[in-house]
């Protein structure tokens, strides 16, 4: 899910969905994600979008959140796993995450193409190290923005990242889940990069990972 709150999911109706994991691709209220995770009794993995607060620099040490070495209140969703710039194993899936959008003003979670490519290189190194350790590949690449020319839009704020093409080639995920591109009443079809299915999850979709 991403970007648009689905009101009926913010009720007990959400319990009708039999899912293993809540995956959020950014720009959703954190209390919405907390409710979904609690109501479904399932973990939540997320990356921040360009309208989310800056979550960089926070660390959780034995249950205590710090920032720059000082105690701090974690502004993200309680219990949520922030996969931005990381590789996490949750609910049997290996998920690599890259939040944010292309830089178009001075807001948080915005990156130039070069900055995002640098962040991607770190993620691919983490994934390679884990693959060497246990032989497992990344199942899902979770991003806020789509790859360039693969479900993005021509206006500057909604242009995708070219580096994600290289990320798909290196990580070989089964799925790339992204948000940021609102349907505005028009269906957004899935796309394919190599063997990776690229899915726009604005609003929400129930997806089965093969």
UniProtKB/TrEMBL annotation:
Gene3D superfamilies: 3.60.21.10. It comes from the Bacteria. Pfam families: Metallophos. Residues 8-183 form the Calcineurin-like phosphoesterase domain. This is Metallophosphoesterase.
